[in-house]
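Ticket reopened. Same input as before:
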Amino acid sequence: MSVTKARSQARSEKPVEPAYRALIRTMGLLRRVMEPYFAKYGISASQWSVLRALNRAEQEDRLKGIRLTDLSDRLLVRPPSVTGTVDRLERTGLVSRAASRTDQRAKMVRLTFTGRQLVHRVRASHAARVQSVLAALRRDEQRQLHYLLDRLGDHLEELNDSANSRAHHNGHK
Amino acid sequence: MSVTKARSQARSEKPVEPAYRALIRTMGLLRRVMEPYFAKYGISASQWSVLRALNRAEQEDRLKGIRLTDLSDRLLVRPPSVTGTVDRLERTGLVSRAASRTDQRAKMVRLTFTGRQLVHRVRASHAARVQSVLAALRRDEQRQLHYLLDRLGDHLEELNDSANSRAHHNGHK
DNA sequence: TGAATATAGTTAGGAAGCTAACTAATGATT
DNA sequence: AATCATTAGTTAGCTTCCTAACTATATTCA
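Engineering reply: fixed in the latest deploy. New output:
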């Protein structure tokens, strides 16, 4: 690989999809901004996503909690990761885990009283926080961003699913 | 916290900034789609970001490599994380680390010959891959997304900086 | 019914991110 | 010049995410 070759490649290099780079940059920055915010309540962003899902389940009258796998599906996070997060939430007493009566394999996860209290406490300020994060964009721009990200997200899910089914049917390679 | 109170809160709950949720969803999905792609070359997405930064440095004629701290700044990743990623890249022989002559504290990181080869190999297919990921959006939509994310990103950087300087000047609390 | 298959969850092991606390070297101040 | 402060990088220890491999329970179907 000669120096001249490298140079000419460099010269012909296109800006490499800036939208893609912007996405990656925003991902990192958003984490950095949100993590300290949740830390004030003694939880992390992923723990909040679990608490939120459990709260939503309660509102849908799923009184006995939801299965770990359901959590995994809703949060788009693999089961082993959910196991870990629920472990820590259980350790801090915000969540409880109990075997399902109808299926001995399944564990029903739900909020404890303390967990429910915390959800309400966070909720009280959460919307304002999210708004302050999105404050750089006008209302219609937020909608536009939402629209574009949803379309992109759907596409990514397709890519993901088709990759998975390929791996499943064809074996490896 | 009575049940009725919880219910009424639930009822009055606004959709909670959908743009924000879309961002989080897209973040996770993008990682899942890109990680296996880089895995085919035996590297991870963050390793690629380091290799890419080093390659760019070479093109700017920074021949002796760049300092670990420069990498940290460019990638928006804290120094300890860069240390780890560079460790692994060094172990696989894609990168080398050497003390700077002018500043004994600094380590100059740069591509090895093998590393440079890999960068060129990845480059050959990278643009197409990114395009296939963004294929859900038309060209002008990609530009629009880029524009919105950049504005959001700048805002997040401000939030971050001001939080940091607050912590610095006021001490804690 | 009994064997094969599928599903729920966990464990093991690894990468990446973070903060806090440390070492070593440089720079500034008196 | 000697001390004090700052900067570069690493280490320690934590969380989150992943895949692969495992255990235990359900389900299918022959």
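Residues 44-47, 77-78, 80-81, 84-85, 88, 103-106 of chain A lie near DNA strand D (CB under 10 Å from a C1'). Helices of chain A lie at 3-12, 18-39, 45-59, 68-75, 79-91, 113-133, 139-170. Please confirm and we'll close it.
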